[in-house]
Specification:
Elements lengths: L2 H4 L22 H11 L7 E12 L2 E10 L6 H14 L3 E6 L12 E2 L6 H20 L11 E4 L1 E2 L5 E5 L2 E2 L7 E2 L4 H11 L5 E7 L12
Helix pairs in contact: 4-5
InterPro entries: GMP_synth_C
Pfam families: GMP_synt_C (PF00958)
GO molecular function: ATP binding; GMP synthase activity
Length: 219
């Protein structure tokens, strides 16, 4: 069998639908205050609860909870790993933590739920983004160094019809556990530049969640 087929990243059995989130779930003011209180002790990191939920694992059960986005102040990956894991483990209303690369001030961004239809239009948008991401990592020789890299479409933007993309690169041996892939900043920047050329895409996020508590796929 061709090495390209053997080394192909795993693809979810249900198809693209598990990489397209469609349900709105707003965080409460109380929840946001708890996040703010914790992050105030983390050397300049700040975060916002996004108005969506994703699948995760809490104890022995699947959970469905919110996602927190962190600002990017060039914090090292190990610290981001620690903070993301602590957020997911400490707060029952959080399943997943993402980074907004190269954006230090979250206050200027308005993360709105913009809606999602599980139709051909949104599927084609996700396919375009996925192709863009894969093209960059193949060009830079990273494809075979990453065990799997789901590209997820979120109904998050600043105005109607805008969407966002999440990069979910992971390292794993057997898929029962996984750690997020520590990507070089220069690579992340190139991916961001290329993805944001797609007119409908407003933000690009990077998933900092290990498995557990997060799952590899978002749905």
């Amino acid at each position: 069998m061709e090495s390209e087929w053997v080394g192909r990243h795993p693809f979810p059995g249900p198809g693209l639908v598990v990489r397209m989130l469609a349900v709105e779930k707003k965080g409460t003011d109380k929840d946001q205050l708890e996040i703010d209180s914790y992050l105030s002790t983390q050397d300049g990191l700040s975060g916002k609860i996004l108005p969506i939920a994703s699948v995760g694992v809490k104890g022995d059960r699947r959970s469905y909870a919110n996602c927190v986005v962190l600002n990017d102040i060039e914090t090292d990956w190990n610290t981001l790993d620690r903070v993301a894991t602590h957020l997911s483990n400490r707060f029952s209303f959080i399943n997943r933590v993402v980074l907004l690369p190269f954006e230090s001030d979250l206050k200027k961004w308005n993360f709105q739920f913009t809606g999602m239809q599980l139709d051909k239009k949104c599927s084609d948008l996700l396919r375009e983004a996925d192709f863009t991401v894969e093209s960059v990592i193949r060009k830079l020789g990273l494809y075979n160094k990453i065990w799997q890299m789901p590209v997820v479409l979120l109904p998050i933007g600043e105005k109607e019809n805008e969407k966002s993309i999440v990069l979910r690169p992971v390292e794993s041996q057997e898929a029962m556990t996984a750690n997020f892939f520590r990507m070089e900043r220069s690579v992340l920047q190139e991916i961001k530049i290329e993805v944001l050329k797609i007119p409908e895409i407003r933000y690009l996020f990077f998933d900092l969640t290990n498995k557990p508590p997060g799952t590899i796929e978002w749905e």
